[in-house]
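## retry 2 of 3
previous attempt timed out at serialization; input unchanged, resubmitting
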Amino acid sequence: MMTTPPDDADLLGRRTAQRVTVLKALTEAHGFVSARTLHASLRASGSHIGLSTVYRTLGALAAADRADVVRTRVGERLFRHRPAAEHRHYLLCRTCGLGMPIDAEDVEFWAERITAASGFSEVEHTVELTGVCPDCRAG
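## retry succeeded, writing output
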């Protein structure tokens, strides 16, 4: 079981027991999870945290670069705790939701080159790679 990094809870603004509980649940979740799924898990374990608190906490973690966010085919955001503030990309299984970090050096280089050539600044990017993992393909 992973413990909640104390500095991550401090990134959420006002530190509350509810936010720490959401952070801990995200840290202990396996893979990417939706806000609704995380909320259902919290409720099943006896927590009375509201869905809006879960959404706000996950949003704050993503804004602080402490949660990775990917989107499903229907646009739902899935979150995974990121222990360090480094930017990452994932290959996400469309069937089971498995998220595998990938080496995205080429993507980062391309984004930097486009940014420099365009004259834009403060450019952000989102790259979504989805497929079917070997286990789901075999099953």
